[in-house]
């Protein structure tokens, strides 16, 4: 069995340390192939070992400069490192090679959104959706961009599509709930927060925004319950913990 095949078996068995070592050995078996570098980089990226993953991507692109997969992957890693401009360059290069790569459009959209280039982000998310009409993540993120651009009607349509094509994701319901509030559809907003929490009962975002709406409706005891549950269940570094504490003090 080749080192490459053995590495893939180890990865499937979640023996990641062994897989990384086997991928490294595979470099010598196929010295002119980018594949071992790409597969190892993908695993390292999933393990948040971004610097090592970046080195492997650089090696893959050196061997195969026209490898769209390697360019897209390096862009993802650069985005994880906060280097969005270089990431955008890589995604753009990947798209020059393969103009129907919806993942590269999606990733470039995320990078544009991260630096506040929201119109460019919506263009890329739209291209990803055109290529893959069932791309739930693209609907969700174009919805976020439209929300930030205060185009609430468009955002509502985006999140509605997101929950249709991507089942079981609480975040799209939460986002749609916030849009519903902007459009003064309070009943619809509360229904969306309830739907989000039916999927993910400990979701801090949903608990926090539902508590705000409940407080606005005068349902203070219910709002307090959401905030207290958030503080009980949310990780210590969750961004909503301090906001929840402040809101509880206001209610009390």
Structure write-up:
With 252 residues, this protein is mainly alpha-helical. It is built from 15 helices and no strands. Helix 5 (68-80) packs antiparallel against helix 6, helix 12 (186-199) runs antiparallel to helix 13 (204-216) and helix 13 (204-216) packs parallel to helix 15 (240-251).
SSE arrangement:
Layout: H1 3-12, H2 16-29, H3 35-46, H4 50-63, H5 68-80, H6 84-97, H7 102-114, H8 118-131, H9 136-148, H10 152-165, H11 170-182, H12 186-199, H13 204-216, H14 220-233, H15 240-251
List its traits.
single chain; 252 residues; mainly alpha; elongated
Write a compact overview of the structure shown.
It is built from 15 helices and no strands. It is mainly α and 252 residues long.
> Quaternary status of these chains?
single chain
Q: What is the 3D form?
A: elongated
Structural class computed from helices and strand pairing: mainly alpha
Describe the biggest sheet?
A: none
């Amino acid at each position: 069995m080749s080192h490459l095949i053995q590495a893939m078996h180890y990865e499937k068995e979640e023996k990641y340390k062994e897989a990384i070592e086997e991928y490294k050995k595979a470099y010598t078996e196929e010295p002119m192939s980018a594949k071992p570098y790409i597969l190892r980089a993908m695993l390292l990226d999933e393990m948040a070992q971004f610097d090592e993953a970046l080195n492997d991507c650089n090696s893959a692109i050196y061997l195969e400069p026209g490898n769209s997969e390697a360019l897209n992957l390096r862009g993802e890693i650069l985005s994880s490192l906060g280097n969005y401009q270089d990431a955008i360059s890589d995604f753009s290069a990947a798209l020059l090679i393969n103009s129907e790569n919806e993942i590269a459009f999606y990733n470039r959209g995320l990078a544009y959104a991260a630096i506040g280039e929201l119109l460019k982000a919506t263009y890329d998310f739209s291209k990803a959706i055109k290529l893959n009409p069932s791309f739930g993540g693209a609907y969700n993120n174009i919805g976020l961009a439209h929300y930030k651009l205060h185009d609430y009607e468009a955002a509502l349509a985006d999140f509605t599509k997101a929950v249709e094509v991507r089942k079981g994701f609480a975040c799209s319901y939460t986002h749609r709930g916030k849009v519903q509030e902007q459009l003064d559809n309070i009943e619809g907003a509360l229904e969306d927060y309830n739907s989000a929490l039916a999927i993910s009962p400990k979701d801090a975002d949903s608990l926090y925004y539902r508590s705000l709406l409940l407080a606005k409706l005068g349902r203070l005891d219910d709002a307090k319950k959401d905030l207290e549950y958030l503080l009980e269940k949310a990780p210590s570094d969750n961004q909503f913990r301090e906001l929840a504490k402040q809101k509880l003090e206001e209610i009390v």
